[in-house]
Structures are given as structure tokens and as C-alpha cells.
Amino acid sequence: MENLNQVKLLETMLLIRKFEEKLEDLSKEYGKLHGMMIVCTGQEAVAAGVSAALEPQDVIISNHRSHGHLIAKGALPNLIMAEIYGKRTGYNKGKSGTLHIAAPEVNALCTTTVVGGGIPIAVGTAFAAQYEKKDFVTVCYFGNGASDEGSFHEALNLAALWNLPVIFVCENNIYSGAQRLEEHTRLKDLADRAIAYGMPSQVVDGNDVLKVHQATAEARQKCLSGQGPILIECKTYRWGGHSTTDFQSYQPKEEIEQWKQRCPIELLKNTLLGTGQLTEAVWQQINEEATKQVEQAVQFAEESPWPDVTEALEDVFA
Fold first, then answer.
1. Inter-residue contact 78 to 57 (CB < 8 Å)
2. Which of the ends of the chain has fewer CB neighbours closer than 10 A, N or C?
3. Cis peptide before 200 (omega within 30 of 0)
């Protein structure tokens, strides 16, 4: 923890926040973006904390709320934005859009909107690491709703049986679509589900980026020493609805405001200001740089060409 660049964590979370705030703004402009945007505003500490504990060779498998995971893993905002715009310069040549981005360059191998669909895939990449005796772990992000899926239980059972180097990261943001946690499970802590498979687990404050980082770093070391897999449940909250088309009629306004008081960015910023690791001047610079990166990403996307119709069947594998 002493070698952790906490200011860098703050920069990562702020970049994720500004990137997605821009997506929300663009989604309100006619003709700018196609489809709904699914953002992680309020949950930035999970992606930032997890990825700061990983090495470049480590793999991540993401879900529909993926932009933060990708940015934290090192994916370039320009190429993510271009992909969201559907432009040829995007990570997947405009063919994946916002919900299925893969960035193999940073070992972000898969984003799937199938609830629980990424969990078996993560077991596959972890098995490959073990089989080929390669020094990397796989992190699989999923929401609380995915832990009710059969794929979750089958995958965890197999991962535990084979001691695979995989870290299952549950972003428990209280809601699955419009359903509260208590409406689809009787469990208070989803980490308890690991017990059924003889798998260690941990519950952490998902809005405390330092605690998320520490839990992930410890889990990674255990996985590499043959003590995997591990389930980490990050208790957090999404400030917005399921997507930008969700009016949040089911979320109490008081609840949203209470969680905003525990903003992960503000929590770390205030800590760093208090310890002297950050000044208001540096904070201002970080804000300006994040804003600049996002504006450059939008400009890059808007100036990029559309894919040609003749490329429709390229990169399709049978």
C-alpha cells in the first residue's frame, strides 16, 4: 500500500466520472449517440481500485456497465468514445457500440450484456492461465443480479474445484435493473454464496478505493500462489438509473442523496487534502486534464470516419 499512487487513483476515478457525464450529456442531444448509455456514476472506486492492483498481463471480463472498467485497465478514451459513436477508429471498428467493447491491447477481452454471461468466460481464461502455466489472473466484474443466474453458480463451482486464478468482483449497487436486492434474494451479503463452493470471500466498502485496492491485491497474490479463486463483494451504489433512459421512479431520492454524501471521489480527495498529498491547485489541474481528455475523445470520435458497408462481414469468425 505504501507504493500505491493515491493521486493516480483519484485521477482515474475522475476521468471515469467525466467521461460518463459527457456520455449522459451527449445522449440528450439528437443524433449524437445511438441507443442508451449505461454508466457507473458513483461506482468509480471499484474499477479504479481493482485495476490499480493488477498487472498489464492480467485479464478483465466486463459487463454492460463497462466504461469504467475499460478506462481503469488502461483503454484509451479516444478509442472507447469512437467505438461508442460507432466509428471505424473505435476499438472494434464501430461494430460493438457501447455495450460490447473489447480492448485486447490492455487484456480487456470481453464485455457482455448477458447477465452473468461473462462469469463462465472468466473461468475459461483462468483455466487457460493454469493449463499453460502463465503468470496472470482474471478479474470478472458482475452485478448483484448476476449472482442469481445459473451461470454464476456453475462457474464458481468449477473454478473452486480446479483452484483457478480468478477473482470474481461483485459490484453490489443494491439494484438489479429496477429490483432492489431484497426483492430477489434473502442474503444480506452476496459474498456468503462463496461458502457453498469452499471458496474464500470478502465484503468491502465499494466506495473506498483504497480498501478495494487492498482486497484485490491480496486476492491476486493468493490466486497466483494457487489459493484461488476468490469472491470480492463491493458494496456500492449507482446514482443514476439502470441506463440514461431510466427515470429512477423506484429509487428513493433520500437514498440517492445519502449515497452521494459518500462519493468515492470526494472521499479520497478529502483524505489526500487532509494528509497533504494533494493541494487545491493540483486538484484543479487534475480536473482540467480530465475534462481535456474527454473533450479530445469526443473530437476524435466526431472527426473519425464511419465504417464502410463493404467491411460488414470482416472480423466475423465461423
1. no
2. C
3. no
